[in-house]
C-alpha cells in the first residue's frame, strides 16, 4: 500500500519540507553480522572501465550523428544587437544555426530563452551551429557576424561589492542569502576578554571533471532520447520537459557511465537544449559536448568568498561568534552558504551569521563538492586556531571543549555523533601529543615543522523519494533497477552488495541497471545522499523479491515459509539446499519483481556526518613551499558498506581538497572579464606527485536511527576540513597565518613577511 | 618522434585527405584522413576505438595516452599520418581471449579508478613503463603517470596497482 509522508529533504545543505510517496513498511536494521555488506568488494563495473568498454556520453557515436558547437561571447557584458548567420549557413556541412533572433523559446533556469539579449559573461552562449562534423561546425562559427554593444562589467567579488560598481541587477549586486542568530553575539563580543577578528578569502575553484558537460539527443519522430553526462537523469528530464514543452512520456534520459561531476552536473545545460532542438529540426542524432575551455568558462565553479569571522573568548570559553560571508555567484541564481558549519559545528550560545550572494559578470557557480561548507570551514577553523593561539590553549582541546551535543539551529539531537571518537583516532594516528606550540625544527635549517587539524560537519542522511526494483531471474541472478547514477563513487557496487546481502545471492549474480529515466525514480547523485537514499530502497526491493521467492518455494517444497531462507543463491531449509533455479524450473519462464521505496527519516532529530582531518607538514621558510608528510582523515558516516571504495572516496576528497588548498585558482582578468587559465596547463589540479601519504579511518558504527542500513553519505565530508587543517599546521610550524586559498608559496612568503613585521 | 614522410607512397600527404597505413592493436589499418587529423581523433572517430579519451586535446592531461611502437605517447599531440607504418596499441588491444592484462586486473584489485575516465590513459602509461622496466619502484610508477591527471584522486591506488602488476607479471 502506498501512502504519502511529509519529510524534510536536504540537498547540499538546503532544507525543504516535501511530500513523498512510500510503499509498505520499512525493515529494521540488520541485527547480526553482515557478510557482503561491510566486505571489501572490488567494483562490479571495474572490468568495463579498465578495458575502455565503458560507454560514456562522449563516446556515443550514432549513425548519421551531427555535431553542435557554440559561439560564445568575447565580452563580459554586452547587448547582442544583430546576428547574421547567412555566411555560416552556406558553409560546407552546416545544417542549421540558432541564435536569439530565430531560436524557439526554451525555458532555462528562470529565463525564457537560452540565447540572451544581453550576454553577461565571457563565454555566454550567443549562437549555436549544427553541422555534419564538429570541425565543420567550428569553421562555421567563425562566419557568424555579431554586433555587440559593450556594456560596463564587473567580475571581481570585492569590486562588485564596492561603491560605484556597475549595477548588474535592479536590486543591486549584493543580496542576503542566509542568516542565523541565537543569543546576543554583539554584546558577547563587546564583553569578551580576547576577540579574534580576521578576514579570509577563498578563490574560485573549477570542477574540471575529465568528461566535459555534454549530451547526445535523438528524436525518433515520437520520442526524444537524450544521453547526458549527468548526476541526475530525472533532473535532466524535468529540464527538457520545461524547455521543450514535451510530455514526460516522450522523454527518456540515459547516463550509463559518466566522467566526473563533483556537483556541476546536477541538471540540464544549454548544450542539452541545443542538442535536442537541433535533433528535432534535423531528424538526426545531435552531439553537443563542451571543450575544455568552454567547460571552464560556462559549466560552473565553486564561488570565491570573502569572509569575516569574529570570535570572542571569556572565562576559558568561546563567548561569541560572528561570521559574515560574501560569495561570487557569477551569473548563478543561488549561492551556497559558507556559514553553515559555523551555525552547528560548536556549542556556542551567542552567535550570529549572515551570508550574501554577489552577482558578477562571470560564469554561474554550480554546486562543487560540499558547496559553501569547504569555504566556510576554512574560515571558521582557521579563526578557531587563531583564538586558541591567543588564549594559549591546545586547538584540539578547544574543539573538544565546545563539542555540540545538539544541533544548534534545529535544537534537536543528532541521530549519531561520534566526532569525539574521530578526534581520538586522528590525534593518535598523527601523534598529536608531540605537537608543540610554535612548531618544531624541520628536516633542513630553512624548514619548520608543524601540525594542524580541523573538524567537519556535513549532511548525508539522504531521504525519500528514492525507489528501486529487484528483478529475480529464473537462473537465480538478479537485476537491480533504479534511476540513480554512478558518478564514480561506486554506487553500482554498493547497491549490488546491499541487494546480494538481503536477497541471499552472490554479488557476482547481481547486475545493477541505473542511469535511466525508464527505471524507478532515483534522486540526484549529490549531497552525499545516494547510499542513504537509494540503498535502503534497494534493500526493501530485495527483501520483497526474496519473500515472493520463499512464498513460491514454500508451496513447492512443502515447507513452511518461516523455515526457509536464501543463502548463497540457494533456498535453505532444515535438511535441504535447493538452488533458486530449481524453484523456477517448476514455474514458468518468469521474473520475480520486488519493489522498494525509501521511507522517511525520523522526525525531530538531525542527520549529519562528522569528521576530523589532521595534517603534519614542513614549510620552507625561504621559498614558501609546503611539504605535507601525512594527512589523517577520520570520519563518522555510520556503517561502511564497502571499506575499499569508501577509502578511495576519502583519498579522492582529500586530494581534491589539496588542489583547493594549495594550487587551484581561476584567474579572471578584471579589465576584459576573461578567464586566463581555462585549461589544464595553467589551472593546476593535483597530479600524482602532489599526493602525500593519506591515512583513512572510520568509526564504522551503524547509525541505527538513520535508515534501515545505518548508512550515511561520504562523497563530500572528506573535502571539507583539509584546507583549514593545512593552514593551521602552517601557522603552527611558522607562526605565519595564510588567510587566502590557494596557499601558494607566494602567499606563504607574504604571510611569513607579515609575521616578521 | 622524428619527421618522416607518410602515406603509402612515402610522399608528404595533404592538403586534402590522404591515405595512411598503420597497425592498430595488431591489425593493419588503412585510413584516409586529412594531414591535421590527430591520432586521437582517428582512433575515436575513424576507427571507433573510444576507450582512448579526449579531455584537454592539447597535451596536458594524459587521458589520450596510447603506445606507438611500444612507447607511451599523447595521441592528441600526434598526427595520424606520423604513425604511418607504426604499431599503435590502445586500451582495447590489451588482454587476450577475454582475460585482462595484469595492469588492468591490478587496477580493479586496488580500486585504482573512480569515474574511470582517465583510466585507459593511466593503464597505457603503466603498460608502457612495464615494457621498458619489469620491476619498477613506486617512484618509477609515479614518474610514469605524472602526465596523467585523475580528477577523482585515485593516485595512491594507481601507484599501488602499477607496482603490484609488475610483481605479478614477472
Explain this structure to me?
The complex is a heterodimer of chains A (757) and B (170). With 757 residues, chain A is an alpha+beta fold. Chain A is 26% helix and 27% strand. Chain A is built from 18 helices and 32 strands. Chain B has 170 residues and is an alpha+beta fold. In chain B, 31% of the residues lie in helices and 15% in strands. Chain B has a 5-stranded mixed beta sheet with strand order 2-1-5-3-4, with helices on both faces. The longest helix of chain B has 15 residues. Chain B is globular. Chains A and B meet through α1 and α16 of A and α2, α3 and α5 of B.
Protein topology:
The complex is a heterodimer of chains A (757) and B (170).
Chain A lengths: L1 E10 L2 E10 L22 H5 L15 E7 L5 E7 L1 H4 L4 E6 L18 E2 L5 E7 L2 H8 L3 E6 L6 H5 L12 E9 L2 H6 L3 E9 L11 E6 L4 E5 L4 H12 L6 E4 L15 H13 L3 E4 L2 H7 L6 E10 L2 E14 L9 H5 L6 E9 L13 H19 L3 H7 L4 E2 L4 E3 L4 H12 L9 E2 L5 E12 L8 E6 L5 E4 L9 H13 L6 E4 L16 H28 L7 E3 L2 E3 L4 E3 H6 L6 E6 L7 E2 L2 E12 L5 E11 L6 H21 L30 E5 L23 H13 L10 H12 L1
Parallel strand pairs in A: 3-14, 12-13, 16-17, 19-29, 23-24, 31-32
Antiparallel strand pairs in A: 1-2, 3-7, 4-6, 4-8, 5-7, 9-17, 10-15, 11-12, 11-14, 15-16, 18-19, 20-21, 21-30, 22-23, 22-28, 25-26, 26-27, 30-31
Helix pairs in contact in A: 6-7, 10-17, 13-14, 16-17
Chain B lengths: L17 E7 L2 E7 L5 H8 L18 E4 L2 E4 L12 E3 L12 H8 L9 H14 L5 H7 L10 H15 L1
Parallel strand pairs in B: 1-5
Antiparallel strand pairs in B: 1-2, 3-4, 3-5
Helix pairs in contact in B: 2-5, 4-5
